[in-house]
């Protein structure tokens, strides 16, 4: 093997292709696959020197990262594993990298259940919880509360335009939780009945801003006015150390057909040209940290302003490209 150039293992390249083609999808699944790929690269490396070994691991990380650079869990997994790479010899570097990847995978497999247990401690018997969209992390808190014998009720926003709230309502009913399904615009009215607002997160910025399904921010503002605490449930793979504030995150704009059909568009436009009608469908919004009472993770619950400390503990002081020296 020519050690002058980094060599990426073929299986790592195959994993990268699967992530890029969305054969591997979902935050936790992507993170697990990335950690496994780095462990495989370390195990199979034939590097003759520690420096070449490090370069090969960084090249593998770069290959994986470039598949889905906006998927927060991917660079977080890479950072976590590379940060644990230590030793003076190739053998030591190999062993430490594999051990770090295995540690990450074990923690990841247990994260949601731990998060649920922590989140359920904030809920009391008889509480009414308002939800928005569909989040398995948020549902894990409610499931743990039910398993603890607490009687919980839910007010579920349907969450237009895709109505993911219907999924939440169905899964809560499967748990035996009484559900009131409401249209999004009725949230302020029903907050008078709620003891908590519980939502998930797509990602969380270093200042504690929460990027989540569109409508989360407005719900949080209304909840603050009503004195209803807002709890965000998110595994640590959702933390976004590269983003100092949530307002620097690019918001995905989804297809207008989720909002109006071609027939509805034609009806709205009437006899006027279509170029005078713009339909926008942002997928997410940003909730400032002042409207969030607690961020619950598998590592514990934190006030939003403290989340940056957890990021540093998990991923180090350095952000940016996870393969950087």
UniProtKB/TrEMBL annotation:
Active-site residues, Swiss-Prot/TrEMBL: 133 (proton acceptor), 202 (proton donor)
Pfam families xref list: IF-2B
Binding positions for substrate per the UniProt entry: 25-28, 68, 212-213, 238
EC number(s) on file: 5.3.1.29
GO molecular function ontology, one term from the record: ribose 1,5-bisphosphate isomerase activity
Biological process (GO), any one: L-methionine salvage from methylthioadenosine
Family: Belongs to the eIF-2B alpha/beta/delta subunits family. R15P isomerase subfamily.
Miscellaneous comment text of the record: Reaction proceeds via a cis-phosphoenolate intermediate.
NCBIfam families in the cross-refs: eIF-2B_rel, ribulose_e2b2
Function: Catalyzes the isomerization of ribose 1,5-bisphosphate (R15P) to ribulose 1,5-bisphosphate (RuBP).
Protein name: Ribose 1,5-bisphosphate isomerase
UniProt source species: Natronorubrum tibetense GA33
């Amino acid at each position: 093997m020519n050690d002058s150039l980094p060599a990426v293992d073929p299986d790592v390249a195959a994993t990268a292709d699967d992530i890029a083609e969305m054969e591997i999808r979902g935050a936790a699944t992507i993170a697990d696959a990335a950690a496994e790929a780095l462990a495989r690269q370390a195990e199979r490396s034939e590097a003759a020197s520690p420096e070449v070994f490090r370069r090969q691991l960084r090249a593998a990380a770069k290959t994986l990262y470039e598949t889905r650079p906006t998927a927060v869990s991917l660079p977080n997994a890479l950072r976590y594993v590379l940060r644990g790479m230590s030793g003076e010899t190739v053998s030591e570097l190999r062993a430490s990298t594999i051990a770090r990847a295995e540690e990450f995978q074990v923690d990841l497999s247990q994260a949601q259940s731990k998060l649920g247990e922590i989140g359920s401690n904030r809920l009391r018997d008889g509480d009414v919880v308002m939800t928005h969209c569909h989040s398995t992390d948020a549902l894990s808190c409610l499931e743990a509360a039910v398993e603890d014998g607490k009687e919980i009720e839910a007010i579920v926003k349907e969450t237009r335009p895709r109505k993911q709230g219907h999924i939440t309502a169905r899964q809560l009913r499967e748990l035996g939780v009484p559900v009131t399904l409401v249209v999004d615009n009725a949230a302020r009215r029903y907050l008078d009945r709620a003891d908590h607002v519980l939502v998930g997160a797509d990602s969380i910025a270093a200042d504690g801003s929460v990027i989540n399904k569109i409508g989360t921010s407005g719900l949080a503002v209304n909840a603050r006015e009503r004195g209803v605490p807002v709890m965000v449930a998110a595994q640590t793979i959702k933390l976004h150390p590269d983003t100092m504030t949530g307002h620097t995150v690019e918001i995905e704009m989804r297809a207008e057909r989720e909002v109006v059909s071609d027939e509805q568009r034609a009806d709205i436009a009437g006899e006027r040209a279509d170029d005078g009608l713009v339909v926008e469908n942002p997928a997410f919004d940003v909730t400032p940290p002042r409207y969030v009472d607690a961020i619950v993770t598998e590592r514990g619950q934190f006030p939003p302003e403290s989340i940056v400390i957890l990021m540093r503990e998990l991923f180090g002081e350095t952000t940016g490209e996870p393969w950087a020296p």
